[in-house]
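Troubleshooting: if your tokenizer reports a length mismatch, compare your output against this known-good record of 142 residues.
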Amino acid sequence: MDFCGALYNWYAVNDSRNIAPAGWHVPTDEEWKQLEMFLGLSRTEADQAGWRGTDEGGKMKETRLWNSPNTGATNESGFSALPGGYRVGTGAYYGDMVWAAYFWSSTEQGSYGGWDRYLPCNTSGVTRNSYYKRSGFSVVGV
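Known-good structure output:
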């Protein structure tokens, strides 16, 4: 699983030391929406929480390293999402390794949550959720 990288909580994503390399940053919720709209979501759908779209998630998923069925994976976007799973806030449990990708945005949603994106192996859509800031997800730099 080394190919999937580390998992970070939302506080690390927003630390003043900047988790991303120089000249890069973790995308905001709005930047995630811009990508999703480029891949086919409407603005109305992009603004919704929960399951959205038909194949936008598949267009972001790498095609070989996921558990089957890796529904709709084409990596048409070149994003190459890998299934790194997640870590619960206590650090006591890791889940969904090789089954799903979870990515933080840098945007807060309420006092306990941050917006994230979820790409599972068994669907080609993309989920927008608010999740507990202490949880560990993957990050991407833009």
